[in-house]
Description:
binds zinc ion; 18 strands; about 375 residues; 2 domains; seven-stranded mixed β-sheet; about 25% strand
Amino acid sequence: MVDVVLSVVFGYERDEVIQKLLEDFRDMINFCIEKALESNVTSYAKLRKLVYEEWKQRWDYSTHFCHSACKIASSMLKSWRRKVRKGEAKKPPKARKLFIRFDPQLVKFEGDRLRISIRPRQFVYVRLKYGEYQRRFIEEWRKGKLKVGEITMNGEKVIVPFRKEVDLTNPKDWIAIDINESNVTGISTNPHIIRIEHGLRTIHTTYFEIRRRIQKLSKYKPITSKRLMQKYSGREKRKAHDLCHKIAKIIVDFAKEHGFGIIMEDLRGIRKNINKGRNLNRRLHSWNFRKIQFFIEYKAKLNGIPVIYVNPRKTSSLCPRCGGKLAPKGQRLMKCKNCGYENDRDVIACLNMLRMRGAPVPPECLSMKLGGRNSSRWLNVTFKPP
Ligand SMILES: [Zn+2]
């Protein structure tokens, strides 16, 4: 069993008491850093002992705030010392941003609010702002399926780490998931093909047209057009968001049913198969890809399904059978110049991802075709234009 932690961000209503607390806590950290440097103390325990008496005279808060401040100060000093050794830093660290990492004794998560104990038997309540995403976590937490870890608060957000004990054992089979602008394709080692034709592109092209029409209006009715623009971009985002959730759910349910681990491409900094002409298109697509990946990852983790990422370089240009160079053949197919192997380009991307996991790809997988045996192409998640 492993502890899976998912950090969820909540908004909150900040008032003067919280503002003061945040500022005081920052002062506490800097006070601890100063003291540690003065006496050349390195460990957290020694630092706490060193500062405690003076801290108590300066601040009238629960003792646990002292512990938290010492913990943060000592970890800041630790990373500073490491940088000094490498010659990367000189000036001692200083806390500038407002934030508090609460000792678990200080704060109680109550679903829609936090109860912070400022002093013994004196509490401050912080109302949390949340949407559908956060609500799911709250519900799971209420059912006792999730535990709450060390909560952090900064000037704008509260970050709640939810922990769940799951059995992320090494699965026997893996599924590689390729996400692109018109479909999501998955190939598993056992072997299965799943293909989800989704309407994400339709959403964006539809709203692109709508936006263009509104823009024409802006000359005559600037205020109305601005209002319409906001309304429709909000709608577009929500539609895409919902669809991403649906796609992720299908993938994770499929993986859960078959006991697969999930392999995806590490898309950080890399955009692939994207219409290069339009910047906006590009942004929307990479935004959707990441969103789908993010949803798949968190849903997978909650279900105890391991997720690994592989480098997407060359996943779509090399032959999964012999490693030779591929050339496009028609719209969808790719053919190997070396051994003549050919398949759908997205299927090939998945096969290469399976290969990059480090284990050989079973030969049955290489002969899998879209629409062939074990192929679930019928999964359609579409979007009806308004
Ligand atoms: Zn080949």
